[in-house]
Write a structure and sequence with these properties.
Helix content: over 70%
Protein name: Undecaprenyl-phosphate N-acetylglucosaminyl 1-phosphate transferase
Shape: globular
Membrane topology: Multi-pass membrane protein
Radius of gyration: 19 Å
Number of strands: 4
GO molecular function: metal ion binding; phosphotransferase activity, for other substituted phosphate groups
Number of domains: 1
Strand order of the largest sheet: 1-2
Enzyme class: transferase
EC number: 2.7.8.-
Structural class: mainly alpha
Order of helices and strands: HEEHHHEEHHHHHHHH
Length: 351
């Protein structure tokens, strides 16, 4: 039984995209402006509140789904959307006030711990016949760490047009596809979750053209933290509902996480301030030394995320067919390949 008909799903995505495109015009005309800085990849002042347009468009599209399409169980998506909205609003404040990095991190930890208390990591499926049950306190701690890491990974990678916005849209629409393809619980448990994924994925897609290729608005921290919370929190929600393992989020964000973590390690080895903004990420160095085209870079990153997810999905299907659990092993191989590629590309850029 379909939670929503294909037409209803497409309608929600389209409505959210159109609303985001329209509301983006308000951000372009009257939003806060990002002034070019040495650490940035842009040369002209650019409005930076596109994320607020995404949040508003998502909320309106969700309301439409609840009132006009009779989506079952809309309340099941409230925790996820509320968590993401709070993260996004904190980003909007930071877009205007430029809050201290440590204060932002403290708020994120508190917010993520609250969400993790409702959606902790319950188990880790490692290999055939090897599943580790995670005690509740450790599950909350693990979920909090995942949320904070993923939030900041997407935020750090949001320095090139289209890269983060497109990745967020792809991830959220893939999540929606997983709900439709693998959801087996009663429809009352999943309708709101599906609605949130469709509306937010559509809204990010609607904002994308005004960021890439038009370069008229940034999503800002409001958009990157809103989207980051949805992507990381969505992985926990899907795991709780047994639609996907916790590894799905890792597959989708692996290209971003590898760049962020290896860059932090690279800076730590050189005794550089980890809380200071910089241009040391591999994608930033690529723009500086190899190819300044943001569009081509975004396509590469989207492709890597999609390929990584396809590998994870393939491992899932093999498990369904044969009973052999391969997802964790596949994720380890993906991460190893990305790490190898990171070091190899970085070496060529600095040669």
């Amino acid at each position: 039984m379909w939670l929503l008909s294909p037409l209803a799903c497409l309608s929600i995505v389209a409505i959210a995209a159109v609303l985001a495109a329209l509301l983006a015009q308000l951000a372009i005309r009257g939003g806060p402006v990002d002034i070019p800085r040495d650490r940035g990849a842009h040369k002209a002042p650019t409005p930076t509140s596109g994320g607020l347009a995404v949040m508003a468009a998502s909320g309106l599209a969700i309301a439409f789904g609840v009132m006009k399409l009779s989506v079952p169980g809309p309340q099941t998506g409230l925790w996820l959307f509320g968590f993401a909205a709070l993260a996004g609003l904190s980003g909007a404040i930071d877009d205007v006030l430029d809050l201290p990095a440590k204060a932002r991190l403290l708020f994120q930890i508190i917010l993520c711990a609250g969400f993790a208390n409702h959606y902790p990591v319950h188990e880790l499926i490692l290999a055939p016949g090897l599943t580790l049950a995670v005690p509740f306190p450790l599950g909350v701690l693990a979920a909090t760490a995942w949320l904070v890491l993923g939030l900041n990974a997407i935020n750090f990678m949001d320095g090139s047009n289209g890269l983060a916005i497109g990745t967020q849209a792809v991830c959220l629409l893939i999540y929606a596809g997983f709900v439709l393809a693998f959801g087996s619980q009663p429809v009352s448990m999943l309708g709101g979750v599906l609605l949130v994924f469709l509306a937010t994925g559509g809204a990010f897609a609607g904002l994308l053209p005004f960021n890439l290729p038009l370069n008229r608005v940034f999503q800002g921290d409001a958009g990157s933290l809103f989207g980051g919370a949805l992507v990381t929190g969505g992985a926990l929600v899907l795991s709780t509902h047994e639609i996907a393992s916790i590894w799905l989020g890792g597959f989708l964000l692996a290209p971003l996480l590898v760049d962020v973590l290896l860059t932090l390690l690279w800076r730590a080895q050189r005794n550089r301030n980890l809380f200071e903004a910089h241009k040391d990420h591999l994608y930033q160095q690529w723009l500086i030394h190899r190819d300044p085209d943001h569009g081509r870079l975004a396509l590469k990153i989207w492709g890597l995320c999609a390929l990584s997810c396809a590998i994870g999905t393939g491992a899932r299907l093999i498990g369904i067919t044969t009973g052999v659990e391969l997802r964790f092993a596949a994720l380890c191989l993906v991460v190893a390949a990305l790490c190898y590629g990171w070091f190899r590309v970085r070496k060529t850029l600095t040669a």
